[in-house]
Amino acid sequence: MPELPEVQALSADLARRLDGRAIVAVQLAAFSALKTYDPPVQALEGTFVEGVTRHGKFLDITAGGLHLVLHLARAGWIRWRDEVPKLPPRPGGKSPLAARIVLDDDSGLDITEAGTKKSLAIYIVRDPADVPGIARLGPDPLSDDFTLETLADILDAAGRSQLKGVLRHQGTIAGIGNAYSDEILHAARMSPFKPANSLDDDALATLYAAIRDTLSDAVARSDGLAMSELKGEKKSNLAVHGQAGKKCPVCGDVVREVSFADSSLQYCATCQTGGKPLADRRMSKLLK
């Protein structure tokens, strides 16, 4: 799933490619991906792109005073085409193509989603706040407004909720997903199941630094990369996420995995839990 660093890099790459370009058409291949109907898709035709920005994990392409907002969800991506096919995409079928944006020189963007679980969302709105997911976003962890005090208030309000869940909840902190919450907690040397309100002042400062540093470093590594290079860059720099069974790059212990909510998490027991492996709670329930 693209998270804050990848979406930031995507927005920068798109801003360079789309600056001043005219949108000829937005062609839908998966009608279920379009979540709005007013303004209609046709309202973007003939408009010029004015900018590309990011709201958490949402991409926002501004054109003609309207906002084409994309949420790539778990398996969505954007692919650049130097030349788009002459015929529009055929709706339905097994193609991963959800929509195509055609530009004034016949280049364009393919918005795709792999797999069978379709969660990618496209919105055309007059104001980004009209997108419910954007309206509910918590503070951006790389903004100046995200201070140590802001994090302290968030954790205090979360009570006994587990740190992993607090970090990846978009209404609490915007832009952090499953991968970077694992990376942040590994950098902070904290258990993903640690209660949010149990951190003392030193631990709070450590977690705050881990959030800012982990995300800032990932953004810096991705800066200037084309969208086709971003997935590989992300995977090659993850310390624990997706690395189950491999050695922790810090201590050499094996990276372990347990289920968490609707997915799984990876961690290092030596670095994060005092050497004690976490119980896989989903498996424990199945054995009862």
Automatic annotation (TrEMBL):
Boundaries of every FPG-type domain copy: 239-273
Q: Which Pfam families match?
A: Fapy_DNA_glyco, H2TH, zf-FPG_IleRS
| This protein's UniProt keywords | DNA damage, DNA repair, DNA-binding, Glycosidase, Hydrolase, Lyase, Metal-binding, Multifunctional enzyme, Zinc, Zinc-finger
Q: Does the keyword Transcription regulation apply?
A: no
SMART domains named in the record: Fapy_DNA_glyco, H2TH
**PANTHER family, per the entry:** FORMAMIDOPYRIMIDINE-DNA GLYCOSYLASE
Return the protein name. Answer: Fpg/Nei family DNA glycosylase
